[in-house]
Amino acid sequence: PVGTSVTQIKANDADASHNGHIRFTFEGGDDGEGTFALDPTSGVLRTARPLDREFSSRYNLIALATDNGDPPRSSTIDITVDIEDINDNAPMFDTDHIQLYIAENSPIGSTVGEIRARDPDAGRNAIIEYSITGGTDAA
To answer: Which ranges carry the Cadherin domain (predicted)?
Structure first.
């Protein structure tokens, strides 16, 4: 859900008092096209919008920690967020209607045709099982 904490980044500054306070931002403002938010004081990285692995399976972010010195000093860290797939898509056939023909004297086990479906999910969530659910040969 939006607002889910993904991780927390931390940085230390040896300066004393005000100069040692650290603020966190995304380098260049790149927040994964609005997908993530970085709390400027705590360094907590949160989701800012729903995630969809089919849209983007990985985000490469760069967080910037800047102190309050004069001049300010900063450091960066690379953050890679891999999005795990959930089974949120149904398989889809390549066509709405299939009509197959086979000669009546064809040997048992003959190939009648090939039916294909696609599932945009990944891994185990994309495995498709086929069965006949209607007609005279339904299982």
So the answer is: 1-93, 94-135
Q: What is the total count of domains within the chain? A: 2
Find residue 8's DSSP bridge partners.
44
- The SS3 assignment for 85 reads coil
Could you tell me if 77 and 92 lie in one domain? no
Q: Measured between alpha carbons, how far is residue 40 from residues 21, 25, 43, 66, 99 in Å?
A: 11, 6, 6, 10, 61
Same domain for 8 and 25, yes or no, is yes
Its pTM stands at 0.76
Residue 47 has a CB neighbour count (10 Å cut-off) of 17
**pLDDT in 10s for each residue of the chain, 139 residues:** 999 999 999 999 887 788 789 999 999 999 999 999 999 999 999 999 999 999 999 999 999 999 998 899 999 999 999 999 999 999 999 998 888 999 999 999 999 999 999 999 999 999 999 988 887 766 5
Range of the domain at 109: 87-133
Q: 93 φ, ψ to 5°? A: -75, 155
Q: Do both 96 and 73 map to the same domain?
A: no
